[in-house]
């Protein structure tokens, strides 16, 4: 602030936002998205009594280069990114995939008329990562 | 999109119905799943896989789905509300080690009740349960006979009931063997104020029978009720309204890959199964934490 003239490195006050944009994370960055469905939409409500709504969620978005720090990705993810950027663009960029799940409890009517309460593993995505 | 075209253009062994075709067909999602059982079902998430196999079996045979008993349905909905949130997330209960509960109602042809008012109130019923749905990977934790009483009729303040169970062992060629009766006297004090359900824990009795590779369970149940605690002659009117034949409730631990492992979830999201978990994680078993601390 002391020196009257702007330092050569920082831009003139007018295009600060353009200056900061280069550090901004990608807008459509890899993150968890909500998706709600009801079993009646699939017409499965004849044998799935509960829950009425099911939110499996999903992961979508670009994986930034510094995936290791924001997503706890393996070092391999950064290597794959470098291969894509520097060596061979036919190698795909790392993908945005679920890293953690939670189970789902379901109440169903079985074909023989008996009733079953079951807890299924890995039915709701709760966290995303880049791999 | 290109991968979907590729799948839609090839004739996969599962005769997948490409989505655009479904406009002309019933929008039944099971038709979108691989038709040939086992084809591509490994790709399906566990719930879809279980439903597609189940749906195919009943759709394939054109067998209409039997409707469950309304009382049994009410009981299971209440159990669901106690075990999971509205979104279907299992609630973490300390003693709740089961991840599967199955409720069977007895086959209709074998329901017969006869009350002998000579010595108090006796209700006996011959029950046949078909346990086809219990898989080899589902291990029995607890089994309960579930009686539901119609509490609209005025009932005495408290009853002492005794329940005797015996089973008819069916020989290999299913001719009736002399009945090997295992009977366990139960004494049951229950004020029948508002309670609609009475649960008889028959785990010790049924454990050997359910563990054996059998599909049908043939049980004779005698319930004798006396007024209050002191034995007395039978009053003119029956003590109990005739109870509906009991249902069989099995609390099971499903050890299959797609079932939720309760003992393993320490209240945090499960790591993606595709990525191996670190060995020293205490998530695997409680002792893990202590062991790694000792090593440190």
Produce a short descriptive summary.
Chain A is an alpha+beta fold and 131 residues long. In chain A, 18% of the residues lie in helices and 33% in strands.
Could you explain how this protein is built, in words?
The complex is a heterodimer of chains A (131) and B (296). The radius of gyration of chain A is 23 Å and the shape is elongated. In chain A, strand 6 and strand 7 form a beta hairpin. In chain A, the strands form 3 sheets. A 3-stranded antiparallel sheet of chain A has the order 3-6-7. With 131 residues, chain A is α+β, with helices and mostly antiparallel strands. Chain A is built from 3 helices and 7 strands; from the N terminus they run αβββββααββ. The longest helix of chain A has 13 residues. The termini of chain B are far apart. In chain B, the strands form 2 sheets. Chain B has a 5-stranded antiparallel sheet with strand order 2-3-8-5-6. Chain B has a 4-stranded antiparallel sheet with strand order 1-9-4-7, sandwiched between helices. At the A-B interface, strand 3, strand 4, strand 6 and strand 7 of A face helix 2, helix 3, strand 1 and strand 10 of B. Strand 7 of chain A pairs antiparallel with strand 1 of chain B, so a sheet runs across the interface.
Q: Which features characterize this protein?
A:
heterodimer, A: 131 residues, alpha+beta, three-stranded antiparallel beta sheet, two-stranded antiparallel ribbon, 3 helices, 7 strands, 33% strand, elongated, B: 296 residues, five-stranded antiparallel beta sheet, four-stranded antiparallel beta sheet, 5 helices, 10 strands, 19% helix, 24% strand, globular, disordered N terminus
């Amino acid at each position: 602030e002391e020196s009257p003239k702007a330092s050569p490195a920082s831009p003139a006050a007018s295009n600060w936002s353009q200056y900061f944009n280069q550090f901004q994370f990608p807008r459509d960055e890899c993150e968890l998205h909500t998706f709600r469905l009801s079993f009646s939409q699939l017409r499965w409500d004849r044998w799935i009594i509960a829950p009425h709504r099911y939110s499996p969620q999903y992961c979508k978005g670009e994986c930034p280069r510094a995936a290791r720090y924001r997503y706890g990705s393996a070092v391999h993810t950064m290597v794959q990114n470098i291969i894509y950027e520097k060596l061979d663009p036919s190698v795909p960029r790392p993908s945005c995939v679920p890293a953690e799940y939670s189970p789902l409890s379901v109440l169903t009517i079985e074909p023989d008329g008996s009733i079953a309460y079951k807890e299924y593993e890995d039915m709701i995505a709760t966290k995303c990562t880049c791999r | 999109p290109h991968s979907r075209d590729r799948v839609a253009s090839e004739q996969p062994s599962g005769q997948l119905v490409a989505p655009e075709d479904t406009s002309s067909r019933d929008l039944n999602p099971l038709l979108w799943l691989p038709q040939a059982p086992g084809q591509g079902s490994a790709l399906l998430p566990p719930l879809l896989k279980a439903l597609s196999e189940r749906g195919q079996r009943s759709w394939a045979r054109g067998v209409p789905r039997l409707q469950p008993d309304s009382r049994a349905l009410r009981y299971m909905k209440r159990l669901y509300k106690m075990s999971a949130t509205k979104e279907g997330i299992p609630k973490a209960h300390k003693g709740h080690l089961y991840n599967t509960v199955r409720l069977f109602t007895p086959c209709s042809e074998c329901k017969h009740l006869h009350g002998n008012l000579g010595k108090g109130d006796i209700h006996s019923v011959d029950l046949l349960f078909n346990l086809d749905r219990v898989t080899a990977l589902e291990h029995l934790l607890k089994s309960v006979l579930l009686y539901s009483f119609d509490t609209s009729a005025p009932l005495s303040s408290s009853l002492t009931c005794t329940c005797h169970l015996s089973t008819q062992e069916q020989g290999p060629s299913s001719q009736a063997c002399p009945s090997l009766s295992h009977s366990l006297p139960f004494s049951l004090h229950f004020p029948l104020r508002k309670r609609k359900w009475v649960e008889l824990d028959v785990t010790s009795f049924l454990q050997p029978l359910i563990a054996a590779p059998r599909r049908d369970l043939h049980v004779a149940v005698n319930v004798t009720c006396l007024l209050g605690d002191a034995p007395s002659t039978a009053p003119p009117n029956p003590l109990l309204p005739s109870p509906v034949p009991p249902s069989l409730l099995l609390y099971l631990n499903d050890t299959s890959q797609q079932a939720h492992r309760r003992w393993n979830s320490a209240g945090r999201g499960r790591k993606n199964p595709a990525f191996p978990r670190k060995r020293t994680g205490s998530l695997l078993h409680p002792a893990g934490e202590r062991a790694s601390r000792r090593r440190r």
